[in-house]
Amino acid sequence: MADLDGDAADAPVREVRHPAARSDGAEAVADARAVISRLLRRASSTCRRLVAGLAALLWATCLSGSAASGATGPAHGARAPAHAAPPDSSLLVFAASSLTDAFTEIGKAFEGRHPGLRVQLHFAGTQQLALELDRGARPDVFATADPRWMDELKALERVWLGSEDFAATRLVVIVPSLNRARIRGLADLGRPGVKVALGREQTAIGHYSRVLVRNLARSSPSGDSLGRRLLANAASQEADVKAVEARVARGQADAGIVYRSELTPALLRRVRPVEIPDSLNVRAIYSISVVRDTPRPGLALDMVKWMRTSEAQKIMRRHGFMPAPGLAR
C-alpha cells in the first residue's frame, strides 16, 4: 500500500469481538463473501469493474435477505429502531480524527437505533487508520476524510466496494488569538519568517492543503510564487488536523490550514479564522464503508446507509459539516 508505512502509530488497536450464533442469514452472507472473492480473484483487468459492480449487487442482495430473515416488523404505524442488536454486542468504527466530535454524537444516536449495541470509536489520521487496517486491525466500519485512501483499501480488498460519501467541508486558515504575525489572508502565509503548520503530505489535511497550493499556482503567476513560498514556510508537518490546530493554538506556529468544521467554540477561544476565497478553496469529501470480514455485516451496512439519512445529516450539520455531493441540504 503506497505511503502506508510513513507515520504508523506503534500502539495496536484492541478489538472487542463477541461470538454470535450463526443464522441462515449469516450463512448467506458468508457464502456471498466467498463468491465475491472468487469473482474478484478471477477477474481480468478489462472486466474487473464489471465484476465489482456485480459483486456489490450480490453483496447488497444477500445483506437485505439476512436482515429480513432475522427481523420482526413493528406494529403498523409505529416508529421502531432498525433492529435490536444481540445482547452485549459492539460495533467498532475507525474514523478520521476530524470526525471526533460529530461521530461521538453519531455513535450515541446509532446505539439508540439498536438497543443493546455499543458503538466503539477509534479516531486517528486517515492514513494511520488505513495502515492499521492493512496490518490486520479489523474494525467493522471505516470512515475517511480522503476518498483516495478508501479507493486504496478497496483495491487491497480491505473494505467492501460499496462506499458512501456522507459529508463535506472546506479549508480555512487559523491563527493564534493574538495574531502577532498579523495574518489577514493567504498572501501573508508567504511572507518571510512566517511559520505555517501543515499536515504531512500523505495525511488527508496535508493532501487538501497541497491541492490549495496547486489552486494558487493555477490562479496566476504570482499565485505560483505564493504557493512555493507558503510551502517553504512550513515550520511543521503534522500527523493530522488536530495536531495542526494544537500547534497554532499553543502559539508555536503563526498560522495553520485546517477544516472549517473544526471551528468549534472551544477552538475559537484560542484561535481566529482567516477565510480562503471560494475560487481557491478545496472541498474535502468524507466517505464510509463496511470493512471486509466483519462478523456484523448487517449492522455495519446499516450504519453506512444511515449516515446519508436526514437524522444523521442533522448531526453532521450541527458539527459544521456540509452534505456530500448529491445529498440535499
Automatic annotation (TrEMBL):
Short name of any one Pfam family annotated for the protein: SBP_bac_11
**Which protein family is named in the record?**
Belongs to the bacterial solute-binding protein ModA family.
Q: What is this protein called?
A: Molybdate ABC transporter substrate-binding protein
Residues in a coiled coil are: none
Q: Which UniProt keywords apply?
A: Metal-binding, Signal
Q: Name one GO biological process term.
A: molybdate ion transport
Task: Spell out the InterPro entries in the cross-references.
Answer: ModA (IPR005950), ModA/WtpA (IPR050682)
According to the entry, what is the taxonomic lineage of the organism?
Bacteria, Candidatus Eiseniibacteriota
Ranges for region Disordered: 1-22
A single Gene Ontology molecular function, please? metal ion binding
Organism per entry: Eiseniibacteriota bacterium
